[in-house]
């Protein structure tokens, strides 16, 4: 994803899958505590849906919204951790495995992945 983007500017934007199908709306953005880099977005998948986490690294911000390089079904099947609290290292590992992403280098004791940057939660 482009650097230098205020993560709060993503909140409320529409999210689309790799084929352009609408997934939902970005509800929250989670930052890596060590770097401050936006790492995950929680996308509300429907009016009565839930929030599905999507990785921001391989995603693209367009004029239309956030485009993630995955099928809508894969996003909707992502593990459900709720929003508004930290992602634990174990939860983040589950997300990496779900999306088939390369695992980050061994986490250090002071690295806390997934601090919400703000949102409606």
TrEMBL record:
SUPFAM superfamilies: PRC-barrel domain
GO cellular component term, pick one: plasma membrane light-harvesting complex
Gene3D superfamilies: Photosynthetic Reaction Center, subunit H, domain 2 (3.90.50.10)
Domain annotation PRC-barrel: ranges: 8-57
Coiled coil region boundaries: none
One GO term of the biological process aspect: photosynthesis, light reaction
Protein name: Photosystem reaction center subunit H
Organism: Streptomyces roseolilacinus
Lineage: Bacteria, Bacillati, Actinomycetota, Actinomycetes, Kitasatosporales
């Amino acid at each position: 994803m482009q650097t230098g983007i205020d993560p709060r500017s993503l909140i409320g934007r529409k999210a689309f899958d790799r084929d352009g199908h609408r997934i939902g709306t970005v509800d929250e953005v989670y930052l890596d505590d060590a770097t401050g880099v936006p790492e995950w977005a929680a996308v509300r998948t429907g009016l009565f849906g839930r929030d599905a986490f999507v990785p921001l690294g391989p995603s693209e911000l367009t004029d239309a919204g956030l485009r993630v390089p995955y099928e809508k079904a894969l996003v909707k099947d992502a593990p459900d951790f709720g929003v508004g609290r930290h992602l634990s290292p174990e939860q983040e590992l589950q997300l990496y495995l779900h999306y088939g992403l390369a695992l980050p280098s061994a986490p250090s004791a002071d690295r806390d992945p997934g601090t919400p940057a703000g949102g409606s939660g």
